[in-house]
Every structure is written in structure tokens, then in C-alpha cells.
Amino acid sequence: MSDLVLEPSAMVAGGAALARDEDGRVVFVDGALPGERVLARVEDARRDFARARVVEVLQASPDRVGPPCAALATGCGGCTWQHVRPEAQVRFKADIVIDALRRIARLAEPPLLSTQPLTGPALRTTARLGVSATGRAGHNRRSGASGRRRTGGPRPRSPDVVETDACLATHASLEELVAAGRFPGASEVLLRVGVASGERVVRVSGGGEAVHVPGDVTVVRTGDRRSAFVHEEVAGRRFRISTESFFQPGPVAATGLAEAVTAAAGDALTSGSHLVDLYAGVGLFVSVLGAASGARVTAVESEAPAVADAEVNLADLDARIVTSEVGRWRLPPGEAPPDVVVADPARPGLGRPGAAAVVTAGAPRVVLVSCDPASLARDTLLLSAAGYRLASVCLVDAFPHTAHVETVSRFDR
Ligand SMILES: C[S@@+](CC[C@H](N)C(=O)[O-])C[C@H]1O[C@@H](n2cnc3c(N)ncnc32)[C@H](O)[C@@H]1O
Questions:
Q1: What domain count does the chain have?
Q2: How far apart are the CA of 398 and the centre of ligand 1, in A?
Q3: pLDDT of 55 above 90
């Protein structure tokens, strides 16, 4: 392990700062900021690049702050941008999006990014956590030079799980569940609360018979036929959300995203128009936009629990819910193109099958919700090839204190 003095120039996707060593080799430095001078320990050296972690800040950026959450010091890998001033977090995320659009989408002049104001702290109401040897739920320990959490496969039990009573990122109702819950023998738990309803549910995976949670909490196990859900409110609309269904990190983030999608759809939606929502989940966007505009809506989603939730959530609207992989979905023959397509794919983005479904639908306006700037840029290339022009990009800071970037982009043709 060697130590280097480095002067990073930018933040990059994943959350590290980018620097170059004296040979010009790229070094991704965790815990550093652009404009700083740091002493960093190389933890992973490859031929073309290295990964390092700050051991001492020699000259600090004005954007550096002390970490607000004590769990970081005990190794928690949950919020890795706590050393970044909140306003600077948003600026760095915007820079990462612009860089991806320039390099990957080959846009010389990407549209100026706007930022969606949020109604409060974007606290999380769902947490998928590992379980420690003593049965406590917690985030996985920061691992490796980049501080990235482990992904894939069953989550390991202690010592990779950090026990904590306080979590900067979670809503108080969820935080209490993290502190009070005991899940001995389980490998993973999903904890979910409804802020509007006060309901709390836990889904336990990988064994764990003797679960101890506060009396109000509904407990289900992975594979149970019985489903458990909470109810949440976003933009005046009520949502049933099962433990098996995807939902945005919390109601504040969901509201911000729905407002950004509404703004991007603009005046294209009116009573009598048609909105298609691809990767619709429990129907968040079609519910909010359909109710506000009076538009007819089509929701396309592949997962049965989310479809079942969407059927409840959209029952009062003129809604058609289609259970399908987006890549295989097409409008029924003879149907006129929709006025707007909203698409909110998972991290890999639309890819070719998803982009083909969007393009074949033929809407003059597409609103793309992306949770990864590289996917946004790749999807921009695919949509541009079909004649769509990227008109606007809005950043929604749904995951503060992390490098996670969410955008809502409008494409017109
Ligand atoms: C990022 S979530 C967005 C959900 C919804 N828009 C929301 O904001 O709550 C992506 C959703 O797409 C679904 N999904 C993933 N791959 C899919 C595919 N190939 N076809 C259809 N749905 C898919 C997931 O089950 C999930 O509900």
C-alpha cells in the first residue's frame, strides 16, 4: 500500500474524487473533494487506474463539512457523501450528469440542468438491511477502497453489518424499527413504513424464527403467500405499497419526482389525452399525472405484486394496467400514439428493448426518469437515434448524503 499526495479535479459517478498521480494514471479517491490537496492510501492498484482513500486532508475545500451522522465513524456504508456540504452535493451530481451526457451521449451542449425543490428532507421510508450476529438490522460496513457496499448474493451476517440506533437517512418511524427490531438468524430484512398511515411492515429473509418488533409491526417472510403493505400519500393521492413492490425512497422524494415528471410532461397532458407509464411500479406517476390531468392512462409493469398494488391505486382512474416486460410491450394494433410516455426503468436504463418499446409507441414527448447518469446518457443516444431531442434535465436529490443521482428528462420529437 503506497501513499500519494493528490489534488482531485472532479467528483465522478460512484462518489469518488478523480485525481491523477505523477505518471498521469487516474486515481479514484474516496473521501476527497475537487480542489483539495490530500494524502491518500492506494488500496487497489491496476495498470490503468487505482483506487485510494484519504488518510489526511492537507488543504481542505470550502465544500468539506464534518459528517453529521455518528454511524459513519463506526464503519456504516450507508451515506458516503457526508463530508460534502449539501449544496455542493447537488452541484457535484449535476456535474456528473453533464459529464455523462458529454462523454457517453456525445452531446456537445447538454441542456442546462434544473433542480427540483423538495418539500423537506428526503428521508427514507424503506430500508433493505443486513442482519448482524446479534440479530440487529443495519447497513453493511463500508468495504474496499471505494466504500462501495457489497452487492449480489445473500448479505453476510456480522461483522459486515454495522449496528446503529440512529440513522441520518431514515424517517423516525423507520429509525425506531431499526433500533428496536431483533431478527436473530435472518440474513436480510426489508423494513417499510407509511408516513401518512403510520403503518409498519417487515419482510424477513433467510431464516430467523424469533423476530422481536414493536407490537404494531406486521411481519411476513420471503415466500409467504400472505402479503403485507403500507399506505402512503403523494401529491394528494393514496398508494398501497406491498413489501414486494418497488417504491421511491420516501414520500418527499416521490413527491419531488412526481412534480418533476409533471413539469416535464407540461401541457401535453389534458383531459382526453393518453399517458403511458412504462416500468410503472405501484402506479406512482400515472396516478398523480392521470388524476391531475384527467388523461386516460396505461401502466406497464412486469412484477405481479406491483401490478396488484397498481390495480388498487388506480381504481378511480380511466386506467389500463398491463402485466408485461416493457421490451415485449406494444400498443394494441390500430391504437393512436399516446400523447406522453413516461419511463422509469431500473438502474441499467431502457437499453435497446426498452427504447424500442418507447420509440414504437410513437409519442411526441417522452419523460425519462433515470437513477444512473451513465444509463441516462446511453438511453439518450438510443432515443436520439430515433429522432428524439433531449430538451431538459431536472435533478431530484432523492438520496442526500450519497452519490446516488436521480434525473427526470424530457425528450421531444
Ligand atoms: C425504478 S422502479 C419505478 C417504479 C415507479 N415508476 C415508481 O416511481 O414507483 C422500476 C419498476 O420497473 C419494474 N420493472 C423492472 N424491469 C422491468 C421490465 N423489463 N419490464 C417491466 N417492468 C419492469 C420494476 O418491478 C419496478 O416496479
A1: 3
A2: 17
A3: yes
